[in-house]
Amino acid sequence: MKLDEYQKFCLDTAFFIGSEDIREEAYLTIALSGEVGELANWVKKWFRDEPRSPEEEAELFKRMKGELGDILWYVAVLSHQLGYSLDEIAEYNKEKIKKRIKNGTQRGSGDNR
Fold first, then answer.
1. CA–CA separation, 31 vs 84, rounded Å?
2. What CATH number is given to the structural domain containing 77?
C-alpha cells in the first residue's frame, strides 16, 4: 500500500470530537502522544518480563504492532490537517536524514545538524 492511499483511508475513517475549546491539530497531537505512551508501555513490559517464551514474545510484538498502527493512523490524519501528504512527510524526512549522513551529524542532537 502506498502512503498516500493509506492516508486517504485514514481520512475516510477520521472523526473529531469537535469543540471550540480545542483545535483538531491539538486533539490529534494529544491522541498521538497517548498512542506513543501505550507503545512505550509495551516496550517497558518487553524489557521487564524477560525471559519469556517465544509465544509470549510474539504476542507482545503483536500488541506493539497494533500500537504502531494506531500511531501511523494519527500521523496520517495530523499530517493532512497540517497540509501535508504522508508521501511529502516521508520524502522530507528521507532528505533530512540523507543530509545528516552526508554531514556526519546523524548521531548528534538537535534539529539543526
1. 19
2. 1.10.287
Total structural domains in the chain? 1
Residue 92 lies in a domain: no
For 75, residues 6+ apart whose C-beta sits below 8 A from its C-beta are 32, 86, 89
CB of 85 within 8 A of CB of 79? yes
Quote the domain boundaries for residue 48: 3-86
Tell me whether residue 97 is in a domain.
no
Tens digit of pLDDT per residue, the chain (113 long)?
899 999 999 999 998 765 666 788 999 999 999 999 999 999 998 889 888 899 999 999 999 999 999 999 999 999 999 999 999 999 999 999 999 999 888 887 766 66
Q: What span, in angstroms and rounded, lies between the C-alpha atoms of 63 and 66?
A: 5
